[in-house]
Amino acid sequence: MGAYTDQFTRSLDDPEGFWLDAAQAVDWIVPPERALDDSAAPIYRWYPGATLNTAANALDRHVDAGHGDRPALIWDSAMTGEQRTFSYSQLLDEVAGFAGALAAQGVGKGDRVIIYLPMIPEAAVAMLACARIGAVHSVVFGGFAAPELATRIDDAEPVAIVTASGGMEPGRTIEYLPMVKTALDLAESAPSTVIVKDRPQVPGSAADYGWLDWDQVAADADPAAPVEVAATDPLYILYTSGTTGKPKGVVRDNGGHAVALTWSMRNIYDISPGDVWWTASDVGWVVGHSYIVYGPLLVGATTVMYEGKPVGTPDAGAFWRVISEHGAVALFTAPTAIRAIRKADPEALELAKYDISSLRTLFAAGERLDPDTFFWASEKLGVPVVDHWWQTETGWSIVANLRGLETLEIKPGSPTVPVPGYRVEVIDGEGEPVPAGTEGNIVVRLPLPPGTLAGLWRDEERFRTSYLNAFPGYYLTGDSGYIDDDGYVFVLGRSDDVINVAGHRLSTGSIEAVVAGHGAVAECAVVGIRDDLKGQRPSGYVVLKAGVQIDPEKLRSELVTLVRDAIGAVATFRDVTVVPALPKTRSGKILRKTMRQIVDGEEYAVPSTIEDPAVLADLADQLGPKD
Ligand code: COA
Ligand code: AMP
């Protein structure tokens, strides 16, 4: 039996033993005596009774073990040309100092702190500072506009907001402070403190708004010691798109998270203390939480934090430059970034300019790694290109090729096999298992392993209805796919109204809500259509109110502006088509999937529940592929 089969089998046959063993890699204050608490099933908790501090595990323990001089975080900004390296001792000082500053502002255990920061070291410092004092951080991605920030402020009810004067996108700066001000005006909840990191490149400072300056409060504060928290206490809330406009606040605990991420760094990514590891994502996404900040630091590796793009900052060699300059042994990015590089530099001529011999593996996640991109990257880089599948909710891989455990065959198009702890199955709409090779709902039999979501923030009902009620005994992933005869999982796409644009998860429902607010629009549907670069992009179909005459280009530009202002540039909403009517079922549900199939030129079946087949036929004439 191979190491993978051995570990996977043990994780299912003896989860207590498996996860108590894994827990030994973490420094506890009160070590766990039990792994799983199933007393409130189907809601589970890991490591009841145990206590720890996550930031102390990420920093203090390495310094205490004599590794204070080892680089912990290398910040590389292609936007400003700056680079900074923080050793473990230096990062610990920064974190303890800022934790003290937060504590001086009255932030304590269990309080929420919203972090709205670009990709600067302060983002990691603020997250770890919250963890140090037992506060619960909620990072909001910088590409979201003020109303999205306001929604999160109202849901999380933070005591403090930590932000910066702004971020940088190619060719423009993004001023955060006016957005924070607008969000605070929109929100009902009123945090008592706003702390601003001043970036000289972006106008605006704390003083303009009567807020606090990061450098000042950090200089004035006494360093804070790590606070003991329960393994089951929340470490963070991360909002993610659901099928409705209201985002879901995924709650992560402290103990299970530390154990799972530590286990994953070694067994999935094959990363050891001192290795230089680079995740090219953003701290606003789960990938950034788990693998820019917590995972690499928990195992004493060096994490690279990159502010820039794969292309255009300044060219398609940016990723190769970062790998070569910092000696990264692994890169984790989204397939869309590879597609962007390939589009700009199909022959990978930029690659020849850099020595990337340190690179052992390229990891991809966030969306399906299409075989074309897989083959291109494999050929050009000459290292294994490893897909793995997970979600904000799980916080780490559900299905992966576990490079640290056993080198399994890579099948293009498949993220490989279920990770120990995850009992992955494919079932049909009635909850019956489907035969190998047949597409269905991908579900995971409960309980999920440690590190996965503990619930949704103050909304147990939505947790149950979103994930647990559809198929009792299972966690609903929202993805569809199949398992082949060899047990390899193939993830084909979402089975709900969530779409994935350039590795960013968006809800078509939230875009629809904005589009429907335009005075000329009677009703609308937004569907995720195929996009060669970004995987998918949102495409809007609107029915005008009776008697309304409007120039389609004017309508398009107004709707694009509305979506940009309400959700943010990251929604990438650019396509608007006026249609005479939307196809619906007799119960009034818009046939979004069928619309997508028509636009993408795929085969589609006319649903038996359709209200008016003529509407669908007209739509196919208007939107379908033309011969
Ligand atoms: N703050 C403000 N605006 C942001 C932003 C941020 N942090 N991130 C993106 N935006 C803006 C972009 O400037 C762009 O604005 P525009 O419409 O005015 O041009 C818009 O949001 C869409 O951004 P994006 O979808 O990222 O497109 P892009 O054309 O700028 O870049 C890629 C395309 C493929 C290079 C880029 O999407 C990419 O690097 N993707 C990788 C995604 C990733 O790492 N995902 C994490 C999961 S692993
Ligand atoms: P997020 O929560 O933003 O990480 O998005 C999670 C969703 O992205 C999943 O439910 C999938 O739909 C998609 N996804 C992420 N990784 C992969 C992958 N490796 N293969 C296929 N889909 C993926």
Quick structural gist:
The protein is of the alpha/beta class and 627 residues long.
Could you explain the architecture of this structure?
Helix content is 32%, strand content 24%. The protein has 627 residues and is an alpha/beta fold. It folds into two domains: 448 residues, Rossmann fold (3-Layer(aba) Sandwich), CATH 3.40.50.12780; 126 residues, GMP Synthetase, Chain A, domain 3 (2-Layer Sandwich), CATH 3.30.300.30. It has a seven-stranded mixed sheet, with helices on both faces. Helix 13 links the parallel strand 18 and strand 19. The chain binds coenzyme A (COA) and adenosine monophosphate (AMP).
Distance between the termini: 54 Å
CATH superfamily of the largest domain: ANL, N-terminal domain
User: Based on CA inertia axes, which overall geometry fits?
Assistant: globular
Helix content: 25-40%
- What is the radius of gyration? 24 Å
- The chain-level structural class is alpha/beta
What ligand species are in this complex? coenzyme A, adenosine monophosphate
Number of helices: 19
Give unreliable regions as ranges: none
The CATH architecture of the largest domain would be 3-Layer(aba) Sandwich
Largest sheet: 7 strands, mixed
Task: Give the amount of beta strand, in percent.
Answer: 15-25%
CATH topology assignment of the largest domain: Rossmann fold
Number of strands: 32
**How are the strands of the biggest sheet laid out side by side?**
5-4-17-16-18-19-20
Mean pLDDT: 96
